[in-house]
Amino acid sequence: MKDKVVYQLRDKAIWVVFVILFVAFTIANSTFITPNNLIMIARQVSMYGIASIGMTFVILLGGIDLATGSIITFINILCAYFMVNSGMNMFVAILLSLIVATLIGTINGFMVSSIGMPALIATFATQTIFKGFAYILCGGRPVNGFTTDFKVIGQGWVGPIPVPVIIMILCFIVGSFILNKTYFGRYFYAVGGNEEAAKLSGIRVGRVKYLVYSLSGLFAGLAGIVMLSRTNSGQPTAGDGYEFDVITCVVLGGVSVTGGFGKLSNVAAGVLIIGALTNGMVLMNVNSYIQMVVKGLVLAFAVGFDCLQKKRQTT
């Protein structure tokens, strides 16, 4: 009974925090609640939201993916290079870019699963490699000159809703379907909860890791394309630091850093909290360095809370 109550509190607490934060910033600055600002927040968090789905899968497995920001950057530059420098059709360029992003994730899966490298080191290596490749590809300069059709992905609207927000919502629907309606999703929880038990039950853990890191690369690549369309410029620094914010969104959303526990619906709340927190601090003219401190404290609090919950369950 006690465990059930703890679970319910943990499950709903993130939304309570979101409402409190929303009310606090509204009181501090009435501009926060205006329709234009709320839409801007939704557009700003769309890239975090898309990338957080793949990161959720990885952390559910008990892993980590530090390459997310570099994949966003590299795909940002690669897709721009395909369209501008190679004159490639927009749809072909997007498809090839997403395939490359998935392959980068597969490389991470190979290093973690087949070689046995710690995920922290494997993805840090990939982060460094593809950040370097991005600079090599563009020579350290922005890539510009896209068609009007491509701009729709990041700047278009469907009625009152921005296209990036629609893409993010669709990605969350797909991610939730994978976790809740497929046997692969159940495998993610099983492997993250107890890898040895998963092996003994017949789950091919190596293949699951390959799949998870490949999906992480795919979603990060999609976030990079949406960002490219929104900014209308391929930037060699586009995804710098994104892995930190994405990990914060996922952990804040209640996904356990030790794996085996978490829901995508709560990750959505984590994404909204980070977006609201960032936007609210900007409206209140909070120094950018202080913003970094606040985000770091939020991550420390989220991880600390998770660790305390784990500790209580084992005592």
From TrEMBL:
InterPro entries: ABC_transp_permease. The chain crosses the membrane at residues 12-33, 45-61, 66-84, 90-112, 119-137, 157-179, 210-229, 264-283. CDD domains: TM_PBP1_transp_AraH_like (cd06579). Pfam families: BPD_transp_2. One of its GO terms (molecular function) is transmembrane transporter activity. The keyword Cytoplasm does not apply. GO terms for cellular component: plasma membrane. Keywords: Cell membrane, Membrane, Transmembrane, Transmembrane helix. It is a multi-pass membrane protein. It is found in: Cell membrane. The keyword Membrane applies. This is Monosaccharide ABC transporter membrane protein, CUT2 family. It comes from Faecalicatena contorta.
